[in-house]
Amino acid sequence: PCPGPERPRCPPGPTRWGICSAGAISHDFVLALRTLPPEEHTVAAVAARDLGRARCFAQHFGVPRAYGSYEELAQDPGVDVVYVGVVNPAHLPAGLLFLRRGRPVLMEKPMALGAREVAQLVRTARDKGVFLMEGFWTRFFPAWRRLRSLARGGSLGSPLVLRGELGFDLGGVSRLREPQLGGGVLLDLGGYGLQMALAMLGGPEGQPPPQITAHGVLHPTG
């Protein structure tokens, strides 16, 4: 069981987001965040390994504070939750940094590079009693939530097969072909279909299927 949340240590107001990484995915996340009412959500700070990039990001979005290290963001008392948008191999160290400082974390998918790393993040979040979630935005689409409700209520019978197709021309994205960079189908867009299958084909209370077998084609890089 996760320890109960502490009482807020700041006056009521908007959730103050810290953005870890000034890359393209963080750019997209902040664009989406800005569609919400400013009295509910605001971006308070951004951090990147290069201070210049963090400052450019902050200037573009009107973010008050920019840092040249993730440690500085973790120590900022004016941040309520951190969105982690770093490259896949950095999810574990960045996540642990913020969780150990008691910062709730929204981790861009994939949560980490494998089950052991995910377990370490989850264990740390539970030990510290802080929020941790993988950023699969599709789980919050109204159509998806309605579909899950119908399936769990028995309106669709017992789902036995889910077929999903997702394809993009990503031939120019070299990191997708490099295992050391967290490349491959499952750690990128393939995760969307996988998490949907796990949700629809498991038990009524969200249990995973009793058996999983994977088939695929390996790139020469592995």
TrEMBL record:
UniProt key word Oxidoreductase: yes
Domain GFO/IDH/MocA-like oxidoreductase: 144-204
Reactions catalysed according to its record: (1R,2R)-1,2-dihydrobenzene-1,2-diol + NADP(+) = catechol + NADPH + H(+); D-xylose + NADP(+) = D-xylono-1,5-lactone + NADPH + H(+)
Protein name: Trans-1,2-dihydrobenzene-1,2-diol dehydrogenase
Native source organism of the sequence: Nesospiza acunhae
One Pfam family per UniProt: GFO_IDH_MocA_C3
EC number: 1.1.1.179, 1.3.1.20
Signal peptide (residue range): none
GO terms of molecular function: D-xylose 1-dehydrogenase (NADP+) activity; nucleotide binding; trans-1,2-dihydrobenzene-1,2-diol dehydrogenase activity
Keywords noted in UniProt: Oxidoreductase
Gene giving rise to this polypeptide: Dhdh
Family in the record: Belongs to the Gfo/Idh/MocA family.
One of the GO biological process terms: D-xylose catabolic process
Xref: Gene3D superfamilies: Dihydrodipicolinate Reductase, domain 2 (3.30.360.10), NAD(P)-binding Rossmann-like Domain (3.40.50.720)
Residue span(s) of domain Gfo/Idh/MocA-like oxidoreductase N-terminal: 16-136
Domain of life: Eukaryota
